[in-house]
Amino acid sequence: MIETINSQFKEIVSSMPGGVNLNLCYACGACTAVCPVSRIAEEFNPRKIIRMVLLGLKDEVLSGHEIWLCYQCHACMTRCPQDVRFTEIIKALRRLAVAEGYATQEFADKVEDIDAFSKILRKELVKGLYDGDLDESKAAMLERIKDV
């Protein structure tokens, strides 16, 4: 399958808030190595997403579900030697996907709600574990996580 190349895509993304250092990426893979999402979702690869943007694969990037998988934990940003700020680039790609009709604003809002909920859930699980006060549903959830 031959993808349509949009030679302006990287310029568009790098001109958006958070995208300024996009062109500094030299594909070292530090972002992917530290990413908790890439450990559980093989298709999510921050280095690959950056490369696709730099190569101009606009339709593939904006129409794919991968840009919505990022948990926004910022682990990648702490490890990037070039300060590429992948989580900020993901935010820019999400805004672009909505603006250009690849996704709806309602969908983007629900993903943000899921991100917020998962952070709250983590806090509650850790607190319950620390306090020795996990209820049955939370304990069952932790058991399921062990299998991942």
Write the layout of secondary structure elements.
Layout lengths: L8 H6 L15 H5 L1 H5 L5 H10 L2 H6 L11 H5 L6 H14 L5 H27 L4 H11 L2
Keywords: Iron, Iron-sulfur, Metal-binding
Organism: Mahella australiensis (strain DSM 15567 / CIP 107919 / 50-1 BON)
InterPro entries: 4Fe4S_Fe-S-bd, 4Fe4S_Fe_S_CS, HdrC_iron-sulfur_subunit, Helical_ferredxn
Describe this protein's structure.
The mean pLDDT is 91. This protein has helices at residues 9-14, 30-34, 36-40, 46-55, 58-63, 75-79, 86-99, 105-131, 136-146. It is 60% helix and 0% strand. The protein folds into two domains: 1-103, Orthogonal Bundle (Fumarate Reductase Iron-sulfur Protein, Chain B, domain 2), CATH 1.10.1060.10; 106-148, no CATH class. It is mainly alpha-helical and 148 residues long. Residues 16-45 form the 4Fe-4S ferredoxin-type domain. This is 4Fe-4S ferredoxin-type domain-containing protein. GO terms for molecular function: iron-sulfur cluster binding; metal ion binding. It holds the Pfam family Fer4_8.
Short précis:
The protein has 148 residues and is an all-alpha fold. The protein is 60% helix and 0% strand.
Notable traits:
148 residues, mainly alpha, Fumarate Reductase Iron-sulfur Protein, Chain B, domain 2, 9 helices, elongated
Looking at CATH, which topology of the largest domain would you report?
Fumarate Reductase Iron-sulfur Protein, Chain B, domain 2
E-strand count: 0
User: End-to-end span in angstroms?
Assistant: 32 Å
Low confidence ranges: none
CATH class of the largest domain: Mainly Alpha
The main sheet comes to: none
Q: Mean of residue pLDDT?
A: 91
Under CATH, the homologous superfamily of the largest domain reads: Alpha-helical ferredoxin
Summed up, the helix count is 9
Report strand %.
under 5%
Indicate the CATH architecture of the largest domain. Orthogonal Bundle
Oligomerization state: single chain
Radius of gyration: 17 Å
Protein name: 4Fe-4S ferredoxin-type domain-containing protein
Pfam families: Fer4_8 (PF13183)
GO cellular component, one term: plasma membrane
GO molecular function, one term: metal ion binding
